[in-house]
Please model this.
Amino acid sequence: MQQALLYRAGLAGPLEAELLALLAPFALTETDTAQGWYLTLQDSALVLRNADLPKQGDILVDFASGAATHRRKFGGGKAEGIAKAVGLNKKPGLSVIDATAGLGRDAFVLASLGAMVTLVERNPLVAALLADGLRRGARDPQTADWLPQRMQLVHLPALEALHSLPAPDVVFLDPMFPPREKSALVKKEMRAFHDVVGADDDADALLAPALALAKHRVVVKRPGYAEFLAGKKPTMSIEGKNNRFDVYVNAGF
Model:
């Protein structure tokens, strides 16, 4: 895993002190030289950039972007597969731990549907992107009235979080899965995640503590072709176009 670098040259003006305070928990190494994958500021947003891949483009978390807004308004709401899998179509306001939050897109969908979501991210670069996305989302008119109350970030390894956080109604897992060898070129964000975060080698080990912690169910997002996590057959699966949601239901839900 690459060292977590923050390129200080990109930080200037009134945002500098605010961002440095926001990013302090992630123990980023400040640098005056942009190299490899690094964080910097672009148009008042924190972005992940690769100095050696100029065509890669910036990666950021933007909960008020056009894509996020479109999915929130027109993505199917509680009829979406993820909402059914988690149980939001029957019980609004569920508490959810997203133990592998990544860029927070699934967590955002769940929160927009009323869930109280704790985002767990172990990688400092990705956690920093999430923190900045939450900062900007808390001020955007489209999301400011609900996002701060429904989305909270915890910077911990998933296993540690599953052994230390209060029990939620649902634990959601979306560990990275190797793409098929003959699949199309990996998207820019997936390439970054493989380079920066590395493989989720402990993914199978997450299921047992997730089942022990969740009050009602565990939901595992998997590619349609992937085997069950830890080889354990779910209670049911909800199939999507490219992914499926394996649902492990505890008694009484």
Notes: Confidence is low (pLDDT under 50) at residues 181-186. Residues 5-50 form one domain. The longest helix spans residues 124-137.
